[in-house]
Write a structure and sequence with these properties.
Blueprint lengths: L2 H39 L5 H27 L4 H10 L6 H11 L13 H5 L4 H4 L15
Amino acid sequence: MSGTLRAARAGAAEARWFSVVATAEAVTWAGLLAGMYLKYVTETTEMGVRIFGSLHGAVFLVYTALTVWVAVRLKWPLRWTTLFALAASVPPFATVAFEVWARRTGRLPRPAARPPHPATAADGPGPADRAAPLHARPPKDRGTR
């Protein structure tokens, strides 16, 4: 395996993990906000804060460590991209916004297209694939009037 292909595969793996953890961080933020609502507004229970507070704390730590690891592996500049990724862990749901921005700007590799399912690939081309393209068909003779 060539070094470029190995680097591309490694970058895709880091991007996949980063995406999963960024989404988990946003989901635990939502749970923590819901728990805070139940605790402070409705004053019904503290369980949401207890459960999602711990989960969010753990995922937050994983996100920050993973951000530093991905930044080193993908050679992100420290000044903007890395600091922006770390700062995105503070406001609710900003990790997902950062992940979308990083993909659009090429800082995170896009996921590779999935190969076709083996069952459909083995069946061969379907009727639509065998039909001649529209531009290759001769025009119908409508007759002269």
